[in-house]
Amino acid sequence: MAHVEQALKGLSKDLREVVVLRIWGNLTFPEIAEMTGVSVPTATSRFRYGIDHLRKSEIIAELRP
């Protein structure tokens, strides 16, 4: 889990917030949008960009088999 935390720190606050709320908070994009004060498409995009960044992260890449 420390690797994931380290990778999350590499995200901007906006991206990290949406990724954490979606994955660990199990919130929907409309719920996230309301909580963060952005539109649903913006919340969705932030999640997608955050996940893309994590997938490209060397830290996450090390965890893959």
Could you characterize the architecture of this molecule?
With 65 residues, this protein is mainly α. It is 77% helix and 0% strand. The protein has helices at 2-9, 13-23, 29-36, 40-56, 58-63. It is elongated, with a radius of gyration of 12 Å. The two termini are 16 Å apart. The model has no long low-confidence stretch (mean pLDDT 89).
Structure at a glance:
The protein contains 5 helices and no strands.
Tell the overall outline.
elongated
The percentage helix is over 70%
Taking all Cα atoms into account, the compactness measure Rg is 12 Å
Low-confidence stretches: none
Along the chain, the helix and strand elements come as HHHHH
How do the strands and helices of this protein lay out in sequence?
Layout lengths: L1 H8 L3 H11 L5 H8 L3 H17 L1 H6 L2
Primary descriptors:
65 residues; mainly alpha; 5 helices; 0% strand; elongated
